[in-house]
Each structure stands twice: as structure tokens, then as C-alpha cells.
Amino acid sequence: MRKATIKETNKFLKNKTEFCDILEENIKGYSGEFKEIIIYAPKIYKLMCALLDSPNINKSSRNRISSAIAYFILPKDIFPEEIFGTKGYIDDMYLCLHELRKINDEYEFEELLQYWDDEPRILKNLLSKEYEKIDEKLNYILNDMLKYIGLN
Length: 152
What we know:
Layout: H1 6-27, H2 35-38, H3 41-51, H4 59-73, H5 81-84, H6 90-106, H7 109-113, H8 120-148
Helix pairs in contact: 1-3, 3-4, 3-6, 4-6, 6-8
């Protein structure tokens, strides 16, 4: 296997940063359905990426986190942003919150808080009340998302 050049590595890292910047730009000013959830998309994305740096997260959990991150950046998911606009991030958020709830069950909430850059109550709310809202409306797509990324 060929080793990446510095230029290729820098391009990869730049693109990693740019995705979060694009995400923040795309959700700016959003006031539609699921606003209370979608506005936290950049922070959830950052949390998911940061959890991969945790020495406490096991291989199985890392695979689930990586799969959820991959789904987040896939252009052709169940609700593509190209078609649904900002509201199209709801399936990405649903999957990430689903996996974060599993992480929360496997590890203590403190593990998540180490990498969360906002108030703890916001993350608790996203993982409980807001997740339940999404699950109530969109639970029919969860298995399709999990199957699509190889987690089911």
C-alpha cells in the first residue's frame, strides 16, 4: 500500500475541517422542522469524531462511531441535503444520536462529556427528549440506515 504524501494528508485534514465548516454554514439560520436537533449537528459531528480519540472506547464502539460519521458525510443518504436542504440532516442526526445513546449505555455519561463542547444539559436533552421526538417520527428508517452502513 502506498503511503500518502504530505500534500494528500494536508488535503484530507483540510477537508475534514471544511466539512464541519460547511455543516455550520448550512445550518445557520435554520428554523424549520427539527430545528432543536439540527442546530447541534456540527457539535454532534465534532463529538463523534472526538470520541475516536478516547482510549476508553473499544473497537466495536469505534466501528459504530466511524460508521455513523461516514453516514453523516455521505451525499446519498435517506434524506439527502441536496433534495431536502437543511432538514436533510435529520437522518444523520438520528443515526448519530442513536449511536451516542449506545455509547452512553456502555460507558458513563462522563465519557461523552469529556468531548462535548457545550452545556451537559444540552447533550442530555438531545439524547433523551429530542431523540424520542425523532424516533417517534422516523423510527421506520432506522433499520434502513443501520443496514446501509453495515450495522444491522
